Amino acid sequence: MANSMRAEHSTLGGHSVESSANTIQGADVFRLPNAIVLADANNFFASCETVFNPQLAGRPVVVLSNNDGCVVSRSAAAKQIGIVNGTPWFKIRDQAEHDGVIARSSNYELYASLSHRMMHVMSGFFSHQEVYSIDECFLHNTMTRARTEQTCNRLRNAVLRGVGIAVSVGVAPTKTLAKIANHWAKEHPASHNVTFWTDILHEYGDDVLRSIPVSEVWGVGRRITKKLMSMGITTALDLQRADPVLIQHRFSVLLERTVLELRGIPCVEDASNASSGVRRTQILCSRMFSSPVRGFETLSQALSVYAQQACHRLHRQNSLCGSVAAFCSTSPFSKEYSRIGNSVILDDPSDNPMVVSKAACDALRHRIDEHAPYIRAGVMLLDLSDAQDFNTFEGMDAQRDEHGIGNVLEIATRRFVPRRVGIGYGGLRGAGRNDADTGATWTMRRDMLSIRGTTRWDEMPIVHA
DNA sequence: TCTGGGGTCCTAGGACCC
DNA sequence: TCTGGGGTCCTAGGACCC
């Protein structure tokens, strides 16, 4: 599919020949100038923090990554005082606190819950929704220009009223252009947070793409930017005008598709597996430790906890894994950086946390340096297959865990909350209120965690009337 | 002192087969 | 003694996204 698409576009040199059929069906829908609607929450994590804590509205708020490491989301006010995403918190903490910045540990349980509500509300306004990330979705549109604008505004109001989150909307013929239109909507208050690509193109012509550095185009990362710059391609307009065949040759089909998308030719396919939820092809669970861990004994505690968490996700999508990989590493910022990884093939595909946990530990057992300070570790489940499809000869069954410990864990998790029970260290809970708080020294730091008002009875917000 | 986590897709290159 | 070329499959690594 992707290949035939590429061949077609490459040979046609940019503009496709339409078939005579003008039916609003299948791929033809996406040839319409307003076919793709991208709805994206403004400063999502920071906005979520404000939902149940309205005093934060208008104030500089930042949300930190796990372990309170880096800034990952900023409110408008925090952006205004010049805080940059990705900055390590320890480097700016003093100044930020002096400036009245309020920091929060990331509260993914809250964000996931609000994301779910937001997506549900938005799904009602268009025929097809493709959830792209926790805070944005593509909506497929077949309405007229006027109807589309009306619908986008109703969608924005519904999310704002129903969930308390502001979203911006970009409308364009392709996803890449919708990203650009969405960005424009966020940057230009006059747009009322809904921007049509065709409008800004009509008003500003080539200046729109000329004003966008190539590094800001969706799909262009740091490495590719550097290489493009050396070829004299510095703006989105330069990339749009580049030869797709040359780009494909020097880079990849991915970037070639970006060139075509910038020209208004849709090439990025639907990535979501309908609305029923996506089945992952690999599952990774990894964390940084709050302080360095030495020795296999302690490391295996962490591996065991991560393996159980990974199995929980494996079970949820009804898959089995054929192999388990584990890794650990010292700090990449230290002189003696080392990373150790190894994988183990299971005798039979399994979703049993006991089996997976043991495999993860076995993978690293005799490989680690007993004295090295490890700062992170992770467990990866690979070679996933559908549990229902699994058939072998008699006597060679999958190591399924039908009535065993995994199911007991699932049931207990559903009835109580995650991590009230578990194997080994995964079952211990310390005094703190953090999910992963096992009382061990390595569990992650979340010193500034807000309430999980939508998922925990004991943390429900209190309203004073 | 202190720098996130979880994914996807593509490509190159090796192994193997005929 | 000489030892082609093309296809397929797999894996590791690179690059990207949010």
TrEMBL record:
It comes from the Bacteria. Keywords: DNA damage, DNA repair, SOS mutagenesis, SOS response. It holds the Pfam family DUF4113. The keyword Lyase does not apply. One of its GO terms (cellular component) is cytosol. SUPFAM superfamilies: DNA/RNA polymerases (SSF56672). PROSITE patterns: UMUC (PS50173). One of its GO terms (biological process) is error-prone translesion synthesis. Residues 36-221 form the UmuC domain. One of its GO terms (molecular function) is DNA-directed DNA polymerase activity. Belongs to the DNA polymerase type-Y family. Poorly processive, error-prone DNA polymerase involved in untargeted mutagenesis. Copies undamaged DNA at stalled replication forks, which arise in vivo from mismatched or misaligned primer ends. These misaligned primers can be extended by PolIV. Exhibits no 3'-5' exonuclease (proofreading) activity. May be involved in translesional synthesis, in conjunction with the beta clamp from PolIII. This is ImpB. It comes from Bifidobacterium aquikefiri.
